[in-house]
Amino acid sequence: MTFMQVIEYETTDEDRVDRLMDEWLRITEGKRTAHHAMMGKDREKPSHFMQIVEFPSYEEAMRNSDLPETRHIAEEMREACVGEPRFVNLDVTRDEVVDEDAMESLLGKVLTDLGAVTVAPMMVIGERLGLFTAMADGAPLTSADLATRTGTQERNVREWLALMAASGYITLDPDGRFRLSPEQVIVFTQQDSPYYAPSGFQLFSAAGSMETRDKLEQAFVKGGGVGWEEHHAELFPNVGRFFRTGYAAFLVDQWLPALDGVVDRLRTGGTAADVGCGLGYSTMMMAKAFPKSHFVGFDYHGPSIDEARRLAKADHLGKRVDFEVAGSADFGGGPYDLIAFFDCLHDMGDPVGALSHCRARLTDGGVVMLVEPNAADDLADNMNPLSRAFYGGSSLICVPASQAQPVGRAMGAQAGEARTREVAAEAGFAHFRRATETPFNIVYELRS
Fold it and tell me: Which CATH architecture is the domain 3-91 placed in?
């Protein structure tokens, strides 16, 4: 432990004391054990001084004091002082040093996040007004050009373009015009791409709306969570939009084939349930891919089921797909060859109860597929930008939603494989396998 020696003294001959200190530094070079020393003068009493000398330990301080050179200088110091110096020996119990580089780094992160806070509502507005879409051809344009294309006010568009360019979301050319790079076109205009970003901004903007924040604050203090149905109405369609692109890219081509025997059953006429289906995008994707099978989407949120039925009718899916209002532990029908949970098991108050209910509704050899956000088991391994976004969503939506339900297990969106396996085992599933994964999701296969 670091040790400090404080020497307090008075002198009217400051120059002599300085010369003695310089002399001590010279003659103890390579011998002294002190590794840091400071001297201070009292502003209110100029003859009053204090030296603070830092040592690796008390023993090293005593060894330094015992040096003949130190004793010699100490005697001369006494002659230069008014009265006897006062010595205080301190064991350092707390040592906090502000690292200026670390401080600047932290401030940089804060500024980045402040910019993100301002970007979020402008991103939503830009998407709604078609500002990004109007730039999808990648051609350079001015703020006046974009305003003309979109029927908006040039001055507001000019500031919006500057914000997006400063954020790296739009490219500013040397001639002062703006354009979307090929990558920016994909991320900000192609709604069917798994890289499409505006829906994420819309999701989090809705989840963090003022009325929801008030409810979350009360939940922090009083408990009880915030139910899914208590969120702003814009949350539900934007959650669907946010996850739809990933499901379109991976569900049929990668996730289902990773499950043993499931694709064969669905091709020949199987049955499947999509629990917590929301607006039913995942349900309808499977129904389109496997026209001989029958799919049922279940969700306890009535408005989402109503919208799912409307979308299925518009897609002319007929009797291949049904949507019903039901909870994860009381849905009916079956038996099912496949029961799927897409990014929702961790939202449920009683995931064990939900999976136990599924066991009773599987066909012989049937499979439960869990699609969960990609996460490591160790918190330290989740300190990255993706997990940061997932923890944000989990704080705003997932954990409070679970807490508002019976049991309230509150797994969280970053539960990881070990905790998910634990829940499956409690529900009675003997087989648990990580079937496949993407950077964003892990797919688990459960069998009785």
Answer: 2-Layer Sandwich (3.30)
